[in-house]
Amino acid sequence: MNHTSCPFRSRLIALGIVALMLLGSGSAADGKSGTQVVRLGREFKLRARHQVTLKREGLQIKFVEVKEDSRCPADVKCVWAGNAAVRLEVSIRGKGRKSLSLNTTGNSSAVDYRGYQIRLVDVSPDPRSTRKIAARDYVVTLLVNKS
Question: What is the extent of the structural domain holding 75?
Fold first, then answer.
């Protein structure tokens, strides 16, 4: 064995370990599409145009868009809190795809789909009077339970 290759091999192994750590940080992925894997009964965040799969359930949820955002800006006093309406696409193992709308106000913050209750917990970022939120910057917090 050539001893001059040992420092190179050590650096290569160290780089590999760092790469694996970076890939493994954050939420788990399913290995096929990079889809985030989340658990039933635990709140999770989902970025606009991204998708999650519920571990062991096969339920897939994609955050398609914010259809409406009339929430009161954080730097303004309003008489009404306003509403954010989001559109999700849901399916079980890619079958039975359905479009759902959820709102931050009223009784439409949760919906049942094939034995699961999907609840919209939060929409962020909070609006400001001085800036418009880009569609790609929205993040929803969701909670899924068996219904």
Answer: 28-146
Beta strands in the chain (DSSP E): 28-29, 36-38, 44-47, 51-54, 59-69, 84-92, 95-103, 110-113, 116-124, 139-146
CA–CA dist 53, 92 (Å, integer): 9
Residues 6+ apart with CB under 8 A from 83: 68, 69, 70, 71, 103, 104, 105, 106
Task: Tell me the mean pLDDT in the region 81-104.
Answer: 96
Better pLDDT: 120 or 20 = 120
What pLDDT score does 25 carry?
33
**pTM for this entry:** 0.76
**Does residue 19 lie within any of the structural domains?**
no
What's the number of domains the chain is made of? 1
Judged against a pLDDT cut of 90, whether residue 91 lies above it is answered with yes
Q: Write the CATH number for 86.
A: 2.60.98
Is the pLDDT at 32 greater than 50, yes or no? Answer: no
138/87 Cα distance (integer angstroms): 12
